[in-house]
Design brief:
This protein has nine helices and 16 strands. With 304 residues, it is of the alpha/beta class. The protein folds into two domains: 156 residues, Rossmann fold; 128 residues, 3-Layer(aba) Sandwich (Rossmann fold). Strands 2-1-5-6-7-8 form a six-stranded parallel beta sheet, sandwiched between helices. A six-stranded parallel beta sheet has the order 10-9-13-14-15-16, with helices on both faces. Helix 8 links the parallel strand 14 and strand 15. Helix 1 crosses helix 9 and helix 5 packs across helix 6. The chain is globular, with a radius of gyration of 20 Å. Bound molecules: ribose-5-phosphate. The site of ribose-5-phosphate (R5P) has 14 residues, from strand 13 and helix 7. Ribose-5-phosphate (R5P) binds next to strand 13 and helix 7.
Protein backbone atom coordinates (compact mmCIF):
# COMPACT_ATOMS: atom_id res chain seq x y z
CA UNK A 1 0.00 0.00 0.00
CA UNK A 2 1.43 3.35 -1.04
CA UNK A 3 1.71 6.36 1.27
CA UNK A 4 -1.70 8.02 1.59
CA UNK A 5 -2.21 11.16 -0.46
CA UNK A 6 -3.79 14.41 0.65
CA UNK A 7 -6.90 15.63 -1.21
CA UNK A 8 -7.46 19.27 -2.12
CA UNK A 9 -10.40 20.77 -3.96
CA UNK A 10 -10.62 23.95 -6.02
CA UNK A 11 -13.65 26.25 -6.15
CA UNK A 12 -15.46 23.86 -8.49
CA UNK A 13 -14.15 20.67 -6.98
CA UNK A 14 -14.33 21.09 -3.23
CA UNK A 15 -17.57 19.12 -2.95
CA UNK A 16 -15.88 16.17 -4.66
CA UNK A 17 -12.70 16.52 -2.61
CA UNK A 18 -14.75 16.31 0.60
CA UNK A 19 -16.62 13.24 -0.64
CA UNK A 20 -13.50 11.53 -1.95
CA UNK A 21 -11.62 12.08 1.31
CA UNK A 22 -14.56 10.63 3.24
CA UNK A 23 -14.99 7.67 0.91
CA UNK A 24 -11.29 6.80 0.74
CA UNK A 25 -10.43 7.76 4.34
CA UNK A 26 -7.95 10.31 3.04
CA UNK A 27 -6.70 13.52 4.57
CA UNK A 28 -8.46 16.63 3.30
CA UNK A 29 -6.52 19.87 2.92
CA UNK A 30 -7.62 23.44 2.31
CA UNK A 31 -6.91 26.03 -0.32
CA UNK A 32 -7.77 29.70 -0.04
CA UNK A 33 -9.03 31.18 -3.30
CA UNK A 34 -10.13 34.78 -3.55
CA UNK A 35 -10.01 37.76 -5.81
CA UNK A 36 -7.71 40.74 -5.73
CA UNK A 37 -9.60 44.03 -6.12
CA UNK A 38 -8.59 44.19 -9.80
CA UNK A 39 -10.13 40.80 -10.53
CA UNK A 40 -6.95 38.72 -10.50
CA UNK A 41 -7.17 35.33 -8.80
CA UNK A 42 -5.32 34.74 -5.52
CA UNK A 43 -4.50 31.18 -4.48
CA UNK A 44 -2.90 30.02 -1.24
CA UNK A 45 -2.34 26.38 -0.36
CA UNK A 46 -3.11 26.05 3.36
CA UNK A 47 -2.00 22.44 3.74
CA UNK A 48 1.58 21.25 4.03
CA UNK A 49 2.14 19.46 0.75
CA UNK A 50 5.94 19.18 0.77
CA UNK A 51 6.98 15.66 -0.12
CA UNK A 52 3.35 14.50 -0.27
CA UNK A 53 1.24 12.92 -2.99
CA UNK A 54 -1.48 15.43 -3.74
CA UNK A 55 -4.83 14.80 -5.40
CA UNK A 56 -6.20 18.10 -6.66
CA UNK A 57 -9.80 18.21 -7.95
CA UNK A 58 -11.34 21.05 -9.91
CA UNK A 59 -13.81 21.21 -12.78
CA UNK A 60 -13.16 23.86 -15.39
CA UNK A 61 -16.69 25.19 -15.02
CA UNK A 62 -19.01 27.04 -13.91
CA UNK A 63 -16.91 30.10 -14.51
CA UNK A 64 -14.86 28.52 -17.20
CA UNK A 65 -11.91 30.90 -17.64
CA UNK A 66 -11.59 31.72 -13.95
CA UNK A 67 -11.48 28.07 -12.96
CA UNK A 68 -8.83 27.47 -15.58
CA UNK A 69 -6.58 30.21 -14.16
CA UNK A 70 -7.27 28.99 -10.60
CA UNK A 71 -6.34 25.43 -11.58
CA UNK A 72 -3.10 26.44 -13.28
CA UNK A 73 -2.05 28.67 -10.37
CA UNK A 74 -2.87 25.94 -7.85
CA UNK A 75 -1.08 23.09 -9.59
CA UNK A 76 2.01 25.18 -10.19
CA UNK A 77 2.02 26.28 -6.55
CA UNK A 78 1.73 22.65 -5.42
CA UNK A 79 4.78 21.77 -7.49
CA UNK A 80 6.64 24.80 -6.21
CA UNK A 81 5.82 23.88 -2.62
CA UNK A 82 7.47 20.51 -3.10
CA UNK A 83 4.55 18.13 -3.71
CA UNK A 84 6.10 14.76 -4.52
CA UNK A 85 3.42 13.65 -6.95
CA UNK A 86 0.47 15.58 -8.37
CA UNK A 87 -2.67 13.82 -9.48
CA UNK A 88 -4.94 16.35 -11.13
CA UNK A 89 -8.57 15.30 -11.35
CA UNK A 90 -10.42 17.54 -13.78
CA UNK A 91 -13.94 16.09 -13.83
CA UNK A 92 -15.04 18.54 -16.52
CA UNK A 93 -12.31 19.54 -18.95
CA UNK A 94 -13.50 22.63 -20.76
CA UNK A 95 -12.51 23.73 -24.25
CA UNK A 96 -12.50 20.09 -25.38
CA UNK A 97 -15.28 20.59 -27.92
CA UNK A 98 -13.13 23.06 -29.88
CA UNK A 99 -10.78 20.25 -30.84
CA UNK A 100 -10.36 21.20 -34.48
CA UNK A 101 -10.27 24.24 -36.73
CA UNK A 102 -13.84 24.12 -37.98
CA UNK A 103 -13.57 27.54 -39.66
CA UNK A 104 -10.45 29.22 -41.03
CA UNK A 105 -8.47 31.16 -38.46
CA UNK A 106 -9.96 29.53 -35.36
CA UNK A 107 -7.86 28.62 -32.34
CA UNK A 108 -7.81 24.87 -31.69
CA UNK A 109 -8.54 25.55 -28.04
CA UNK A 110 -7.95 22.15 -26.48
CA UNK A 111 -4.48 21.96 -28.02
CA UNK A 112 -3.54 25.22 -26.32
CA UNK A 113 -5.05 24.20 -22.99
CA UNK A 114 -3.20 20.88 -23.20
CA UNK A 115 0.09 22.73 -23.87
CA UNK A 116 -0.45 24.77 -20.69
CA UNK A 117 -1.24 21.62 -18.70
CA UNK A 118 1.84 19.86 -20.06
CA UNK A 119 4.04 22.67 -18.71
CA UNK A 120 2.69 21.97 -15.20
CA UNK A 121 4.35 18.54 -15.14
CA UNK A 122 1.39 16.79 -13.59
CA UNK A 123 2.10 13.13 -12.81
CA UNK A 124 -1.41 11.88 -13.58
CA UNK A 125 -4.35 13.62 -15.19
CA UNK A 126 -7.79 12.13 -14.71
CA UNK A 127 -10.79 13.49 -16.59
CA UNK A 128 -14.37 12.26 -16.73
CA UNK A 129 -16.02 11.66 -20.09
CA UNK A 130 -13.90 14.27 -21.73
CA UNK A 131 -14.86 15.11 -25.28
CA UNK A 132 -12.10 13.11 -27.01
CA UNK A 133 -13.74 12.53 -30.36
CA UNK A 134 -10.93 13.90 -32.50
CA UNK A 135 -8.07 13.46 -30.02
CA UNK A 136 -6.23 10.25 -30.78
CA UNK A 137 -3.39 10.39 -28.23
CA UNK A 138 -4.31 12.36 -25.09
CA UNK A 139 -1.21 11.08 -23.22
CA UNK A 140 0.94 12.85 -25.76
CA UNK A 141 -1.29 15.88 -26.02
CA UNK A 142 -1.20 16.52 -22.26
CA UNK A 143 2.30 15.07 -21.85
CA UNK A 144 1.30 13.04 -18.80
CA UNK A 145 -0.30 9.77 -17.79
CA UNK A 146 -3.84 10.51 -18.86
CA UNK A 147 -6.96 8.60 -17.81
CA UNK A 148 -10.42 9.44 -19.08
CA UNK A 149 -12.94 7.61 -16.90
CA UNK A 150 -16.72 7.50 -17.21
CA UNK A 151 -19.52 8.79 -15.04
CA UNK A 152 -22.13 6.86 -17.01
CA UNK A 153 -21.74 3.75 -14.83
CA UNK A 154 -22.75 5.82 -11.81
CA UNK A 155 -25.79 7.14 -13.73
CA UNK A 156 -26.72 3.57 -14.66
CA UNK A 157 -26.49 2.50 -11.01
CA UNK A 158 -28.85 5.36 -10.14
CA UNK A 159 -31.49 4.33 -12.71
CA UNK A 160 -31.15 0.67 -11.77
CA UNK A 161 -31.64 1.38 -8.09
CA UNK A 162 -34.53 3.82 -8.50
CA UNK A 163 -36.65 2.05 -11.13
CA UNK A 164 -37.67 -1.46 -11.90
CA UNK A 165 -36.23 -1.62 -15.39
CA UNK A 166 -37.46 -4.41 -17.63
CA UNK A 167 -35.37 -5.23 -20.69
CA UNK A 168 -38.33 -5.84 -22.98
CA UNK A 169 -39.89 -2.42 -22.40
CA UNK A 170 -36.80 -0.19 -22.10
CA UNK A 171 -34.44 1.24 -24.67
CA UNK A 172 -31.35 3.43 -24.27
CA UNK A 173 -30.88 6.27 -26.75
CA UNK A 174 -27.82 8.38 -27.51
CA UNK A 175 -28.92 11.65 -29.09
CA UNK A 176 -26.10 11.64 -31.65
CA UNK A 177 -23.50 9.31 -33.09
CA UNK A 178 -20.84 10.39 -30.59
CA UNK A 179 -23.13 9.30 -27.76
CA UNK A 180 -23.01 5.65 -28.81
CA UNK A 181 -20.21 4.95 -26.32
CA UNK A 182 -22.36 6.22 -23.44
CA UNK A 183 -25.52 4.46 -24.64
CA UNK A 184 -23.51 1.24 -24.79
CA UNK A 185 -22.18 1.60 -21.24
CA UNK A 186 -25.62 2.56 -19.88
CA UNK A 187 -27.20 -0.41 -21.62
CA UNK A 188 -24.58 -2.89 -20.40
CA UNK A 189 -24.59 -1.63 -16.80
CA UNK A 190 -28.38 -1.73 -16.46
CA UNK A 191 -28.61 -5.18 -18.04
CA UNK A 192 -27.96 -5.49 -21.76
CA UNK A 193 -30.77 -3.23 -22.85
CA UNK A 194 -31.26 -2.42 -26.52
CA UNK A 195 -29.67 0.84 -27.53
CA UNK A 196 -29.27 3.04 -30.57
CA UNK A 197 -28.26 6.57 -31.51
CA UNK A 198 -30.13 9.31 -33.33
CA UNK A 199 -28.77 11.28 -36.25
CA UNK A 200 -28.19 14.85 -35.17
CA UNK A 201 -27.18 17.84 -37.26
CA UNK A 202 -26.08 20.97 -35.45
CA UNK A 203 -27.46 24.15 -37.02
CA UNK A 204 -26.10 26.61 -34.43
CA UNK A 205 -24.77 26.56 -30.86
CA UNK A 206 -28.38 26.27 -29.61
CA UNK A 207 -30.23 24.59 -32.44
CA UNK A 208 -30.00 21.03 -33.69
CA UNK A 209 -32.21 18.91 -35.93
CA UNK A 210 -32.68 15.19 -35.49
CA UNK A 211 -33.46 12.63 -38.14
CA UNK A 212 -35.60 9.82 -36.74
CA UNK A 213 -36.05 7.77 -39.88
CA UNK A 214 -36.19 4.08 -39.00
CA UNK A 215 -36.50 4.73 -35.24
CA UNK A 216 -39.06 2.67 -33.33
CA UNK A 217 -39.73 3.55 -29.70
CA UNK A 218 -43.51 3.13 -29.66
CA UNK A 219 -44.72 2.27 -26.18
CA UNK A 220 -41.16 2.07 -24.86
CA UNK A 221 -39.57 3.54 -21.79
CA UNK A 222 -36.60 5.50 -23.11
CA UNK A 223 -33.42 6.45 -21.25
CA UNK A 224 -31.54 9.18 -23.12
CA UNK A 225 -27.88 9.49 -22.17
CA UNK A 226 -25.39 12.15 -23.24
CA UNK A 227 -22.08 13.42 -21.94
CA UNK A 228 -23.07 17.08 -21.75
CA UNK A 229 -26.25 19.09 -21.50
CA UNK A 230 -25.22 22.61 -22.39
CA UNK A 231 -28.01 24.78 -23.84
CA UNK A 232 -30.39 21.80 -23.68
CA UNK A 233 -31.05 22.08 -27.44
CA UNK A 234 -30.01 18.47 -28.15
CA UNK A 235 -32.12 16.89 -25.42
CA UNK A 236 -35.18 19.05 -26.13
CA UNK A 237 -35.11 18.10 -29.79
CA UNK A 238 -34.52 14.42 -29.01
CA UNK A 239 -37.40 14.31 -26.51
CA UNK A 240 -39.76 16.08 -28.92
CA UNK A 241 -38.98 13.56 -31.66
CA UNK A 242 -39.14 10.48 -29.45
CA UNK A 243 -42.50 11.58 -28.05
CA UNK A 244 -43.86 12.10 -31.55
CA UNK A 245 -42.81 8.54 -32.26
CA UNK A 246 -44.84 7.30 -29.29
CA UNK A 247 -42.26 6.80 -26.50
CA UNK A 248 -44.23 5.97 -23.35
CA UNK A 249 -41.88 7.53 -20.84
CA UNK A 250 -38.58 9.40 -21.11
CA UNK A 251 -35.75 9.73 -18.59
CA UNK A 252 -32.56 11.66 -19.24
CA UNK A 253 -29.13 11.18 -17.71
CA UNK A 254 -26.07 13.31 -18.35
CA UNK A 255 -22.56 13.34 -16.96
CA UNK A 256 -21.88 17.07 -17.21
CA UNK A 257 -24.94 19.22 -16.50
CA UNK A 258 -23.64 22.57 -17.70
CA UNK A 259 -27.23 23.83 -18.05
CA UNK A 260 -26.29 27.15 -19.61
CA UNK A 261 -28.71 30.10 -19.42
CA UNK A 262 -32.33 28.97 -19.07
CA UNK A 263 -31.61 25.35 -20.06
CA UNK A 264 -32.82 23.97 -16.73
CA UNK A 265 -36.21 25.69 -16.94
CA UNK A 266 -36.63 24.67 -20.58
CA UNK A 267 -35.89 21.06 -19.62
CA UNK A 268 -38.28 21.21 -16.66
CA UNK A 269 -41.07 22.15 -19.06
CA UNK A 270 -40.60 18.80 -20.81
CA UNK A 271 -42.00 17.10 -17.68
CA UNK A 272 -39.63 14.17 -18.02
CA UNK A 273 -39.99 11.10 -15.85
CA UNK A 274 -36.47 11.85 -14.61
CA UNK A 275 -33.67 14.27 -15.38
CA UNK A 276 -30.41 13.54 -13.62
CA UNK A 277 -26.78 14.55 -13.87
CA UNK A 278 -23.59 13.81 -12.01
CA UNK A 279 -21.75 16.21 -9.75
CA UNK A 280 -18.77 16.83 -12.05
CA UNK A 281 -20.45 20.23 -12.11
CA UNK A 282 -22.86 21.30 -9.40
CA UNK A 283 -26.35 22.01 -10.75
CA UNK A 284 -30.00 21.50 -9.72
CA UNK A 285 -29.88 17.99 -11.23
CA UNK A 286 -26.48 16.84 -9.91
CA UNK A 287 -27.83 13.97 -7.82
CA UNK A 288 -25.31 11.28 -8.77
CA UNK A 289 -21.78 11.42 -7.39
CA UNK A 290 -18.70 10.55 -9.42
CA UNK A 291 -16.60 10.26 -6.24
CA UNK A 292 -16.78 6.41 -6.30
CA UNK A 293 -15.60 6.38 -9.93
CA UNK A 294 -12.69 8.71 -9.09
CA UNK A 295 -11.68 6.55 -6.12
CA UNK A 296 -11.81 3.43 -8.27
CA UNK A 297 -9.58 5.09 -10.88
CA UNK A 298 -7.10 6.23 -8.22
CA UNK A 299 -6.97 2.71 -6.82
CA UNK A 300 -6.46 1.17 -10.24
CA UNK A 301 -3.42 3.35 -10.93
CA UNK A 302 -2.06 2.68 -7.44
CA UNK A 303 -2.43 6.21 -6.05
CA UNK A 304 -4.58 5.13 -3.08
C1 LIG B 1 -21.88 17.14 -28.29
O1 LIG B 1 -20.83 16.76 -28.79
C2 LIG B 1 -22.23 16.71 -26.91
O2 LIG B 1 -22.16 15.33 -26.83
C3 LIG B 1 -23.63 17.19 -26.48
O3 LIG B 1 -24.61 16.52 -27.25
C4 LIG B 1 -23.81 18.65 -26.65
O4 LIG B 1 -22.71 19.33 -26.12
C5 LIG B 1 -25.07 19.15 -26.00
O5 LIG B 1 -25.17 20.52 -26.19
P1 LIG B 1 -26.58 21.26 -26.12
O6 LIG B 1 -27.20 20.92 -24.80
O7 LIG B 1 -26.24 22.71 -26.22
O8 LIG B 1 -27.38 20.80 -27.29
Amino acid sequence: MSEKPIVLGGSNGEHLAVELAELGSLELGDIEVRKFPDGETYVRILANVADRKVIYINSLQRNVNESLVETVLTIDALKDLGAKEIIAVIPYMSYARQDARFNPGEAVSIQTIAKVFSLLKIDYLITIDMHLHRISDPNRLFNTKFYNITGVKELAKYFKKKYEIRKEETIVVGPDEEAEQWAKIMSKEIGDLDYFTLEKTRISAEKVVIDTRGVNVKGKRVIIVDDIISTGGTIIEAVKNLRELGAAEIMVGTVHPLLIGNAYNRLLRLKLKDLVGTNTILSPISRVSVAPAILEALASIGVV
